[in-house]
Amino acid sequence: MWSKIKQQIPNSVTLLNAWAGAAAIISLFSGQWEVLPYCLLLSLIADFGDGLLARLLKAQSPLGKELDSLADLISFGFFPAAMLYQLFMQALGLPEGLQWGQRESYLLLLPFLLLLFSALRLAKFNTDSRQSESFIGLNTPATTLFVFGYFWTIQQQLYGLEQYLLWPPLLYGLLALLCYLLIAEIPLLSFKFKSLAWRPNRWRFLLILGILPLLIFLPLGLALPAGILLYLLLSVGAIVVGDLRLGE
Q1: What single DSSP character describes residue 187?
Q2: Comparing C-alpha atoms, which of 177, 176, 182 is closest to residue 122?
């Protein structure tokens, strides 16, 4: 009896991730944006916690692996695409959103390319044995954190940056770059600690030490994109010195 219950505990946490992602999407489209950070935080905690619980309880299963990707597609695929959709509405001056028959509004379908590339990235992750120690391409939670920070900076009108961040060519370029990074054959640091030793984890420790002051001294909307950019730069540094290679 306990073995069956134990098997479902991590899956229940995974479903919490999906629920939080769905709540974020509903809140986004209903204009209740103040709850979005809490929904995203809950999704991130659940996404990290389900795998941790599965390892601690020795309850890993093929079902759990597939369920995790399905939940991630909601929280870290559909949700960031929906945020970009809202930004495209603002940038293109289309407050009513997509209107079938109104040709210029068809551009609002472009942000959902991020959903498609997120699905492709998650499917690749499930079938790619090279990603046990590091990531290949930008993972979907990191993509979502970047998009959320960008979105939040605009909605909070931080330092008047919204007038520049809503420039349509910049949004097109950002969308193309994120879609590319999701499936790029580029090794990136993972967050898996097998020990607390400095040598094998030095890049992870440097990332933590770099992100903490960003979170302390910068508004959330700026801290998150800056943290993801730091993550990418440190991954490049690890590649340059030979600490990070494809499949390692």
Answers
A1: E
A2: 182
DSSP state of 109: G
- Rounded Cα distance, 179 and 171, in Å: 12
pLDDT in tens, 159-185: 999 999 999 999 999 999 999 999 999
Q: How many H-runs (helices) and E-runs (strands) does the chain carry?
A: 10, 2
Give how far Cα 75 sits from Cα of 80, 102, 114, 199, 207, Å: 8, 30, 12, 34, 24
- Report the DSSP beta bridge partners of residue 187: 136
- Chain centroid to Cα 197, Å, comes to 27
**C-alpha span between 60 and 8 (Å, rounded):** 10
CA dihedral for 238, 172, 145, 9, sign (positive or negative)? negative
Residue 135 phi, psi (nearest 5): -95, 155
In whole angstroms, what is the distance from residue 25 CA to residue 127 CA? 28
Strand partners, 135: 188
Question: 97-128 pLDDT, tens per residue?
Answer: 888 988 888 999 999 999 999 999 999 888 87
pTM for the whole thing? 0.94
Per-position b or e across 30-42, b if 16+ CB within 10 A of its CB: eeebeebeebbeb
150: which 2 tokens? Answer: 């960008």
Half-sphere exposure of 28 (CA within 13 A, CB side): 26
